[in-house]
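Q: My collaborator sent me two sequences in one message, no labels, and asked for predicted structures for both. Can we handle them in order? The first one she listed is below.
A: Yes, handling them in the order given. First sequence, followed by its structure tokens:
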Amino acid sequence: MNTLTHFDDQGQAHMVDVAAKAATHRIGVAGGRIEMLPATLALIESGSAKKGDVLGIARVAGIMAAKKTSDLIPLCHPLALTRVAIEFELIHADAPEVNAVYCTATVETVGPTGVEMEALTALQVALLTIYDMCKAVDRGMTITDCKLLQKHGGKSGSYVAAG
């Protein structure tokens, strides 16, 4: 892979033509975390945040974002998604380690193009939603380490991030 696929021979941006590609089962998995104060994590865990169920709302926001990826990223194809799953893990740490919520977004489809962008978009919006819901008590939260963890399906096969 030594060329950018979203540019034509004249260097103009274009949507990649996927008409000749086989429809296969495609999976994209992205992961990342939002770091926060211990008290903020405690609020999330107890369900007593002022705006309500932080993780439940973040899960729905991530699912909605996956479905809207082509509206946000100009050259993404609109896809018929068959599955979107958003999972959270609460990370309680002792100083100097950081308390965090780790999020994994898994997106699936059967089609001619992958769902990596949908997984990454779902991840980021889920984490941004946590920030939005908790910013009144912790403006110093940091979203970090967001990346594609896995991709499966299609001609290029599987990718699994190192580590």
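Q: And the one she listed second?
A: Here it is, processed independently of the first:
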Amino acid sequence: MKGADTVGRDSRGYDAGKKINGRKRFIITDTLGLLVTVTVLAASWQDRDGAKSALLGAYMLTPIRHVFADQGFTGRLIDWTRDTLRTTLQIVRKPADQRGFAVHPRRWVVERTLAWLTACRRLARDYERHPSISAALIRWAAIAGMTRRITRSRPARRQARRTFTWS
């Protein structure tokens, strides 16, 4: 995510692949899309290294022992997760014959959660000086979303379109 001018130079980085100057968010969710752990690092960190800290946080806090990830997390991370954390890291690959966009099983859950989080206006861009405060705001937005879903007694409905007539 892009960092504002208030983000300190010591906690921001540049990701040449995505051409972003700021920070990266690494989240782990359950199968419903509810946030389990979050790690915020400089964008210059490799995805596999950032995933290690997020997976370690999930290992310490929860009994999760099977994790789905996309193709960016292949390689030695799978062996490290198996040997060190005694956790299965399953890579969800796209089909070889796929052209264009398609929803992948299990991967869309995290993407949907990230979309829910960025709906919180404060999280659309990183304004925080310290990564720990940024991670706390992500947790806060996730808690707000969970409480909204819990307190809603019936399925959400779209508001009726308002039409105005001038007389």
